Amino acid sequence: MKKWTSFGLVIAATAMAATPLAAQQPSPAWNGFYAGLNAGGLFGSTSSTFATPFGPGGFSGSGAGFAGGAQGGYNYLFGPVLLGAEVDFQGSTYASQLGGGSGAGPLAATTYTPWFSTMRLRAGYTVGSVMPYVTGGAVWGQRTVSGGGAGMPAYSASNTYWTWTVGGGVEGMIADRWSMKLEYLYMGTPSTALPVAATVPVSESTSGNLIRLGVNYHF
Prior knowledge:
By secondary structure, the chain is mostly beta strands. The protein contains 1 helix and 8 strands, in the order H-E-E-E-E-E-E-E-E. It has one domain: Porin (Beta Barrel), CATH 2.40.160. The chain is elongated.
């Protein structure tokens, strides 16, 4: 419930902020290719249960970090309705401190997301120079984990993963061929569990929340 409440607040706030742009700017030519840069924050939480030779265990934690990168895509207008596709690549400083344990004793670890990429469809409705939109698709990224605990030597490992994402935002033209957007994305549990040494993961639940500002140039 909290993630959808946050999503609703983000969309409502960006829509209110963009209303003056719609009144002051002429309708832009949204059609065609575009590319740009973005920056924002990534925050989330993780919990997992696993099996070890000493019995079942688990860990949980939350974290945050900076995320920034580049995006590119294509828009096509059907009257005021816009359909398009977008791909982005993000570098990230996201880090999450995890704590827990098993029959062997306590466990502590830190997980990082050094990079990820999203591949999404977009659907929007243009109102003058402003376009609220929804978006969804896939996420590909990398996670690393390092830590240790009782009966377990220090370890470090990494893997790549796929997951899904949904969200939305508001984009508005701020100058000829230039637009700015505010966007929120919710990201689901990765397809590949965290590689914790000497364990067999049983289940994992991870959520990611990305809020970012972006600037695009329309060709």
